[in-house]
Request: fold
Amino acid sequence: MFISDYQSYHLNYNLCNHQEKIIALIYSIPMVIEQNRPDFSIKISNNMETKPLWTQEEVVALYNKPIMDLLYEAASIHRKYHDPNKVQVSTLISIKTGGCPEDCAYCPQAARYHTNVKAEGLMSLEQVKEQALAAKAGGSSRICMGAAWRNVKDGPEFDHVLEMVRTLNRLDMEVCCTLGMLTENQAHRLSEAGLYAYNHNLDSSADYYKEIISTRSYDDRLQTIENVRKTNITVCSGGIIGMGESIADRAAMLVTLASLIPQPESVPINALVPVPGTPMEVMEAVSIWEMVRMVATARILLPTTQVRLSAGRTNMSTEGQALCFFAGANSIFSGDKLLTTPNPAINEDMDMFKTLGLVAQQPFEKKNQPETIATEMAHYHDLGERPRWSRPEHKIQRNIAKQQDK
Reply:
């Protein structure tokens, strides 16, 4: 067939146009696939109530990813949901120290172990207010009050704690408490007092928990969190690494936290601080890489949660902590003590913030300040509850051996 020069020109022109379109289409395919691919790094779905978001095996694989890949994924998610240069600062006050009846293997406040911690009574309102004002002046936005109790008991001491909550909330600070197990009514009373957050750590996986504590059950921990969720108080719950648990145990704990509906607003990641006299006094300190991996994995599973870099920071360099912040940590405990264990002083942390270009988060940026209802106007009152929290019957030999030491 004869083709004129004119026809030849138009044929070549059309072919060229088609080639350009085909090439453009080929190059756009990866982009289209990427845009339409489900984002498995942020596993948030509408069917949270019917299907766990992560399996333990998936989380172990995530934790063990090459560190650069893990950091990139975690930092990307962190920047999507948070200001990467802003860190929430909390100060922990031990309002009732020592004499605890529990047998937590990591804790120097357990009365059965022979540590240097001396049992003290409940602090006065004036003492707590003075420490809170000092923490606020130093840059803290939240006060967490901790009492070495097994569980909250209705009566004068709990009434005193409620007045502490009312007083500190009026200082325009976020108020958190960690008082042990509590009932739904007690949670409502704390809520009416103006409590912002309640801390109740899971400590470890459900399986490994039995190797740490024998005086209370994992289910009681979850029940307390459920009781808190029936109020407008936010949940703070995390755990400790370095107690001899496996990576699978760490993953299982994170799966449990990530499966809570809604997920905790705060998740503290603690590195065990071995204290002489406790059953875990001989444990080796975790490496900074273990902390970085744990923080990064927590950030990926808990995108909107504030991941708190908690106990163990005295063993971390500024560079190590910077890696944790990059991986998704955006909260710290500041002050020279975490209940009874050493911690960086608040001025040291402010110097670190200056070096890293970080700023302290202001109070109530994440959630509005709760209203404080005066005692005489409260809807919930002392019911004289005496709940029967469980006492598992299993024995932990290292705990028993340590309490028999002289």
About this structure: The radius of gyration is 26 Å. Residues 1-51 have pLDDT under 50 and may be disordered.
